[in-house]
């Protein structure tokens, strides 16, 4: 099925470039473009794209607030948002994920990673630029949660604890299935159960919860994995 995408960036040349890259990919179609945050929110609510690709710095309404309006905790039917920016400041990353983003990329990430992030968001996975992943996770560990982390309504099973650990390391459903030697549908069942037990709405929130509850600790980063 075709992944329908909204692209929002205040720089026309960047917006056009992103649109060209995505439209050149089989299975992806850019259905709307916006030059500011308010227009992005308006178009997203009208078109209901599978993925919204939002710049951080936009006039009127920035990418963080636009993300919150489309995917924040108060949104009943959230859209999948991937934030893309030239700024890899930790506060931007943290704020974007807190606002409900399913991914965070730098504009120099390249077409392959951009396409991967769009597909991941559409499928319910999350992708964060590798260059900032380690710093982000360390920030979670060092800063601690802004409030006491919520407790699960039911105890997690041993398998769910394993899934949480791998998910918090940025593994996709397919990678989790391969490592635990279970089926992809079983992984999806575990993820759905985890979201229900801890009140999370997506994989990013599960990963953040894992760090906030000390279920996953920072390990030395080596060659793309933890």
Automatic annotation (TrEMBL):
One of its GO terms (biological process) is phosphorelay signal transduction system. Pfam families: GerE, Response_reg. One of its GO terms (molecular function) is DNA binding. The keyword Cytoplasm does not apply. Residues 4-122 form the Response regulatory domain. CDD domains: LuxR_C_like, REC_NarL-like. Residues 149-214 form the HTH luxR-type domain. It comes from Dactylosporangium sucinum. Keywords: DNA-binding, Phosphoprotein, Transcription, Transcription regulation. The modification 4-aspartylphosphate is found at residue 55. InterPro entries: CheY-like_superfamily, NreC/VraR/RcsB-like_REC, Sig_transdc_resp-reg_C-effctor, Sig_transdc_resp-reg_receiver, Tscrpt_reg_LuxR_C, WalR-like. This is DNA-binding response regulator.
């Amino acid at each position: 099925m075709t992944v329908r995408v909204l692209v929002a960036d205040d720089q026309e040349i960047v917006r056009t470039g992103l649109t060209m890259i995505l439209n050149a990919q089989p299975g992806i179609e850019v259905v709307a473009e916006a030059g500011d945050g308010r227009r992005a929110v308006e178009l997203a609510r009208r078109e209901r794209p599978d993925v919204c690709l939002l710049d951080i710095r936009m006039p009127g309404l920035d990418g963080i607030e636009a993300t919150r309006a489309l995917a924040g905790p108060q949104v009943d039917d959230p859209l999948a948002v991937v934030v893309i920016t030239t700024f890899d400041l930790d506060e931007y990353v943290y704020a974007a994920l807190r606002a409900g983003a399913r991914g965070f990329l730098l504009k120099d990430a390249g077409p392959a990673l951009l396409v991967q992030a769009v597909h991941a968001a559409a499928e319910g996975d999350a992708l964060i630029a590798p260059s900032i992943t380690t710093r982000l996770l360390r920030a979670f560990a060092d800063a601690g949660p802004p409030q006491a982390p919520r407790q699960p309504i039911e105890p997690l099973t041993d398998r769910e604890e394993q899934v949480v650990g791998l998910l918090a390391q940025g593994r996709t459903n397919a990678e989790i299935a391969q490592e635990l030697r279970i089926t992809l549908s079983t992984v999806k069942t575990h993820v759905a159960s985890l979201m229900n037990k801890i009140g999370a709405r997506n994989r990013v929130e599960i990963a953040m919860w894992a760090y906030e509850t000390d279920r996953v600790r920072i390990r030395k980063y080596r060659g793309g994995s933890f």
